Amino acid sequence: MTQYSKKDFLVITGASSGIGAATAEIFLQHHFTVVNLSRRVSTHKGVLTLTTDLAQNGFEHILKPRLMPYLEKADRIVLVHNAATLEKDSVSQIQPDPFRKILEINVVAPAILNQMLIPLMKPGSSILYVGSTLSEKAVPRAFSYVTSKHATIGMMRATCQDLLDTGIHTACVCPGFTDTPMLRSQLNHDESVLEQIKSGNGHHRLVDPKEIAQTIYFAATQPVLNDAIIHANLGQRQQ
Ligand SMILES: NC(=O)c1ccc[n+]([C@@H]2O[C@H](COP(=O)([O-])OP(=O)(O)OC[C@H]3O[C@@H](n4cnc5c(N)ncnc54)[C@H](OP(=O)(O)O)[C@@H]3O)[C@@H](O)[C@H]2O)c1
User: Fold this and answer.
1) What letter would DSSP give residue 35?
2) Which ligand 1 atom is the nearest neighbour of the CA of 16?
3) What average pLDDT does this structure show over 123-137?
């Protein structure tokens, strides 16, 4: 089994909350140095946050000189595209600017970060995308999110093809309903809706963010999973 050290880096977006915070924790336990990119600072002492707004045009010009000095001597780099935003919108009501903002965070920022980090990534490195159940199906009133999460799978597949022969692998982890602030705020903290959601899988509960974090860690460290789409949703009932 590969042993990791402080010279192995996790660069993750959105580790100030939810799945990202749990993922940072797991990589710290495996001795990685963890760098988080988000607007809020991670409350975990071991995590270095470089505050970044991924929706800001040109964020990479501010980030690059701050991030590069940490990564120049990295052995392996795991890049996890986790940050995302979710709005309730629909095909007939979508407004260009909010739609652009969602695509900036969920689609364009991962592409920019890939370009920044791939030149520094040695064999054994990996790029993990966090998709969603909505990467492969749609529900009403989630137009921009569904669109962006379908693009996530496309980005992962294209990343795989472009990086063949580099020793860098990629995969997309698609969580189901996971108990995070994003989910709870989307449901307006309505416990009755949460109960309905829980009955939508055979285990009658939400996914724990730590379960997604462990899945991301496993996929990030297993090259055999190159190009994999990994459903992590407790088995959703087919309606
Ligand atoms: N929870 C679920 O049920 C579920 C299901 C399927 C997929 N997912 C996916 O899982 C991932 C994590 O979601 P979560 O549920 O853990 O949500 P969360 O708790 O709301 O966390 C979202 C993270 O994204 C970051 N973020 C949002 N906008 C940003 C911006 N403009 N710049 C930088 N960072 C930004 C936030 O950081 P700041 O606010 O500090 O910037 C936060 O750390 C997302 O890709 C989501 O689509 C979640």
Assistant:
1) E
2) 43
3) 98
